[in-house]
Request: fold
Amino acid sequence: MLLKLQNITKGYGEPGTHSYRQVLDGLDLEVKRGEKIAVTGPSGSGKTTLLNLIGTLDRPEQGNIFFEGKDITGYTKSGLANFRNKYLGFIFQLHYLLPQLTLMENVLLPALPAGGKISVEQKEWAEYLVRKVGIWEQREQKPSQLSGGECQRTAVVRALINKPKLLLADEPTGALDEENAQALTELLVNLSREEGVTLITVTHALSLAERMDKRYVLKNGLLA
Ligand SMILES: Nc1ncnc2c1ncn2[C@@H]1O[C@H](COP(=O)(O)OP(=O)(O)O)[C@@H](O)[C@H]1O
Ligand SMILES: [Mg+2]
Reply:
C-alpha cells in the first residue's frame, strides 16, 4: 500500500460554533503503488480539501495518513516540506508557470536546490520528459508564447521533475478544450504506466475519470 487515509475528518470555521462546516467526515482511502485513482463529486463536496490533505498542504482534524506504512500525520512543518519535495508532484487546473522563465527553466525550477546547481542527470531527465510530452521544439519559449495545452504539458513535466512516487492532480484538464483535454489524459495515463507513478486525480471530466483504475465519488464527506 502506498497511501492509506484512516478516518479523516476536516472542516472549516471554529469547531463547535455555527460557522463550522464539516467537509470530510471519517473518510478512508487506500491507494496501491502504481494505481490510478479518480475522485469525482459535485463542486463544494471537498475534492480539493481532500487533495490538499493528501498533499500535506493542510492537516486533518482527526485521523491518520500513512505513506509507505509510515504515519506522516504528526510530521513537523519542515518534515512535511521535505516529504512533499521528495515524494509528491502536483498538477493544478491552472498551470502557474512563471511568465519570465522559459519552458525549460520552469520545468527545472523545482529541481534547483537552494543556491545550488542542477545535476546532469536531472537535466537529462527533464529533456527526456520534455521530448516525451511533445514540447521539445518550444523549450526556449516563454509561457505567453505557448498554447494552453503546451502550458499544461509543461506543468506535468514540472510535477515529475523530482521523480515523485505520487502525482496529485486537481482538475488537470479543467481549463483545456476537448482535444487538449484528451491529449493530456493520454499523457497522464501513459506517464503513470511507463514511469510507475501513482496518480490521484480530481476531475469533472468523465473521459479522464474513465481511464483511471478506480473511480470514487466524494459525497457527504465520504468516498463511495
Ligand atoms: N479555506 C477555506 N475556508 C473556509 N471554507 C472553505 C475553505 N476551503 C474550502 N472551503 C469550503 O469547503 C467546502 C469544500 O471545498 P473544496 O474542497 O474546495 O470542494 P471542491 O474542490 O469539491 O469543489 C466548500 O463548501 C468550500 O466553500
Ligand atoms: Mg476543487
In short: Helices lie at 47-54, 77-87, 103-108, 120-132, 148-160, 178-195, 206-209. The CA atoms of residues 38 and 215 lie 5 Å apart.
